[in-house]
């Protein structure tokens, strides 16, 4: 290939740019590393936030406690309805479904964690839902594509799919609202192991997003005050979806106390923030927390 002087010049400049970019990225990494030595607490209390923003080097299965508390993690929620045709397959064919699904989970375990919930009987538009976490959104997609290629996945229609990412606290942080921030870590879940999970999408109006920062903070403080009493019987996690999906947030909860959960939602229905909600549920998805293999077996074999 003939390279003219001017081309060589361009190549040299490109190479220099590359060096500069690399140096700049190292600088950014170092700065963010030190800024994260005092990371803002994550939305879910009771678990320590991981200082790692970027995906750690993967050498084994993903560390569940870490990925569930780290910021910058991708979360994909999807609800499924099993097609009636599935039950026309022989029992022998359906019997192998759980093993096939678990092989896919195993294949992706270094990049993805998956939680499954049985919704049949509670929901009209789903039999189960999945919550998939990955440091890399493409890894979550790779899992979901493989899952849909299993026999069980093939006979499952997706009835809702929402994605979001986890972030450090925006409002009730040590810096902006120190007392309530303390309150958040003042109590942890003490109830029996939660059996029920809820997924509730939330979208706010343009009026909300155009409020001055101090007013949004004030509203979120008013949101937080009545909720503190529920830290002992409700676990929660927040995903930010603006721009990634047609909602602003995906809220996720685990509880064993449905009356307390109902009261919690009532208390949040009564705060001024609620006037800014253009979506609060729709759908609200309730499921029981179960090992993935159990969900598949129950829906495949009835036990
Ligand atoms: C134990 C119960 C709860 C507690 C302690 C709690 C606490 C909080 C706190 C501290 C924040 C602010 C996060 C930040 O600073 O960025 C927040 C945000 C939020 N919470 Fe809750 N919450 C609870 C239950 C709920 C429920 C039941 C819902 C509705 C389904 C809900 C929906 C939201 C939403 C959508 C946000 C994000 C709002 C925004 O950034 O504009 N929370 N919550």
How does this structure look, described?
The protein has helices at residues 5-35, 64-67, 91-95, 97-107, 137-148, 151-154, 178-185, 206-209, 213-227, 258-269, 292-301, and strands at 74-82, 112-118, 128-134, 156-165, 196-204, 234-240, 249-255, 277-280, 285-290. Strand 6 and strand 7 (249-255) form a beta hairpin. Strands 1, 2, 3, 4, 5, 6, 7, 8 and 9 form a nine-stranded antiparallel β-sheet that branches. 38% of the residues lie in helices and 22% in strands. The chain starts with a helix and ends with a helix. The chain has eleven helices and nine strands. Mean pLDDT is 86; it is low at 1-53. The longest helix is centred in the first third of the chain and has 31 residues, at 5-35. It has two domains: 1-35; 40-303, Alpha-Beta Plaits. It is of the alpha+beta class and 303 residues long. Bound molecules: protoporphyrin IX containing FE. The site of protoporphyrin IX containing FE has 23 residues, from strand 5, helix 9, strand 6, strand 7 and helix 10.
What's the pLDDT, averaged over the residues? 86
Number of helices: 11
Relative helix content: 25-40%
Q: What is the CATH third-level topology name of the largest domain?
A: Alpha-Beta Plaits
Domain module count: 2
For the biggest sheet, the summary is: 9 strands, antiparallel
What sort of overall outline do the alpha carbons produce when their principal axes are compared?
Answer: elongated
| Content of β-strand | 15-25%
Alpha-beta classification: alpha+beta
What's the CATH first level of the largest domain?
A: Alpha Beta
Report the count of strand segments: 9
Mind telling me the C-alpha Rg? 23 Å
Uncertain regions spanning at least 5 consecutive residues: 1-53
Give, in order, the helices and strands: HHEHHEEHHEHEHHEEHEEH
Ligand species: protoporphyrin IX containing FE
Ends: how far apart? Answer: 67 Å
The CATH architecture classification of the largest domain is: 2-Layer Sandwich
């Amino acid at each position: 290939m003939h390279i003219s002087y001017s081309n060589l010049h361009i190549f040299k400049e490109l190479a220099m740019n590359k060096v500069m970019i690399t140096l700049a990225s190292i600088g950014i990494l170092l700065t963010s590393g030190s800024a994260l030595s005092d990371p803002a607490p994550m939305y879910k209390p009771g678990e320590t936030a991981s200082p790692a923003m970027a995906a750690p080097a993967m050498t084994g299965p993903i560390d569940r406690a870490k990925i569930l508390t780290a910021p910058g993690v991708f979360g994909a929620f999807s609800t499924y309805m099993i097609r009636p045709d599935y039950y026309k397959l022989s029992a022998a064919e359906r019997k192998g479904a759980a093993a096939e699904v678990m092989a896919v989970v195993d294949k992706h375990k270094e990049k993805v964690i998956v939680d499954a919930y049985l919704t049949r009987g509670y929901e009209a538009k789903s039999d189960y839902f999945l919550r998939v976490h990955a440091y890399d959104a493409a890894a979550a997609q790779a899992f979901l594509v493989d899952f849909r290629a299993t026999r069980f996945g093939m006979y499952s229609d997706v009835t809702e799919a929402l994605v979001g990412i986890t972030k450090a606290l925006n409002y009730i942080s040590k810096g902006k609202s120190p007392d309530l921030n303390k309150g958040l870590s003042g109590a942890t879940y003490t109830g029996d192991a939660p059996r029920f999970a809820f997924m509730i999408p939330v979208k706010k109006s343009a009026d909300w997003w155009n409020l001055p920062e101090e007013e949004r903070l004030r509203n979120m403080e008013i949101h937080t005050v009545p909720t503190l009493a529920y830290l002992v019987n409700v676990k929660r996690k927040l995903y930010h979806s603006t721009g990634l999906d047609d909602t602003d947030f995906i809220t996720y909860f685990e509880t064993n106390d449905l009356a307390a959960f109902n009261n919690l939602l009532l208390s949040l229905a009564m705060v001024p923030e609620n006037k800014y909600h253009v979506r609060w549920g729709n759908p609200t998805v309730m499921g029981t927390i179960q090992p993935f293999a159990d969900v598949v077996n129950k829906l495949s074999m009835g036990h």
